[in-house]
Design brief:
160 residues, alpha+beta, Alpha-Beta Plaits, 4-stranded antiparallel sheet, 42% helix, binds inosine-5'-diphosphate, binds magnesium ion
C-alpha cells in the first residue's frame, strides 16, 4: 500500500514563490519527501515528460510553459500516495478545482482563458496520474541514488 509518486511544482508555482506553502501541505498530511531538486527542463525533456500530449493542439503552449523557468521536482511517499496526491492537487482546470485543493486555492484560470492566449493552463503543479505514470515519471526525473529511504515521525503511526 505504500506508494511513491512524482510531483513537480511548475515554473508558475516557483516564480510565484509558493513552493514552501505547497510542500508544507504534503508534509502536513504525513507524506514523506523521498527526493527533491530544482530542474530547468529543455524542450526535449518536456516532450518525454508530456509524451501523451505532444500531438495535442495545446502542446506548444504547454511546452513553452513548462520550460519557461525551473521546476521543483520531488518524489513523495505514503499510503496510496498516487491517488492521495492527485486529491490534494485537484482537477486540471483551476476554474473547476475546489477550494482546499492546491490548484483551487492557488490559481483560478480556465481552459478558455489559456486557449484564447494560446498558452498552457498555469495550474501550479504536476502530479502523476496513476501507478504506471508514477513509475515512468520517477525514473525519468530521478536516478536511484537521488531517492532516499529514511524514517519520519509519521512512520511510527503509519506502519503500526
Ligand atoms: P494533469 O496535469 O491534471 O495531469 P493533463 O490533462 O495531463 O492534466 O495535462 C497536462 C497539463 O497540460 C495540464 O496540467 C495543463 O497545464 C496543460 N493543459 C491540459 N489541457 C489543456 C488545455 O486544454 N489547454 C491548455 N493547457 C492544457
Ligand atoms: Mg497528466
Amino acid at each position: 500500500m505504500i506508494e511513491k509518486t512524482f510531483v513537480a511544482i511548475k515554473p508558475d508555482g516557483v516564480q510565484r514563490a509558493i513552493v514552501g506553502e505547497i510542500i508544507s501541505r504534503f508534509e502536513k498530511v504525513g507524506l514523506k519527501i523521498a527526493a527533491l531538486k530544482m530542474v530547468w527542463v529543455d524542450k526535449e525533456f518536456a516532450r518525454k515528460h508530456y509524451a501523451e500530449h505532444v500531438d495535442k493542439s495545446f502542446y506548444p503552449g504547454l511546452e513553452a510553459m513548462i520550460t519557461m523557468g525551473p521546476v521543483v521536482a520531488m518524489v513523495l511517499e505514503g499510503v496510496e500516495a498516487i491517488a492521495l496526491v492527485r486529491k490534494l492537487v485537484g482537477p486540471t482546470e483551476p476554474k473547476a478545482a475546489p477550494p482546499g485543493t492546491i490548484r483551487g486555492d492557488f490559481a483560478h484560470v480556465s481552459y478558455g482563458h489559456a486557449d484564447e492566449l494560446g498558452i498552457g493552463v498555469k495550474n501550479v503543479i504536476h502530479a502523476s496520474a496513476n501507478p504506471e505514470d508514477a513509475k515512468k515519471e520517477i525514473a525519468l526525473w530521478f536516478s536511484d541514488e537521488e531517492i532516499h529511504d529514511y524514517d519520519t515521525v509519521h512512520d511510527k503511526h503509519v506502519r503500526k
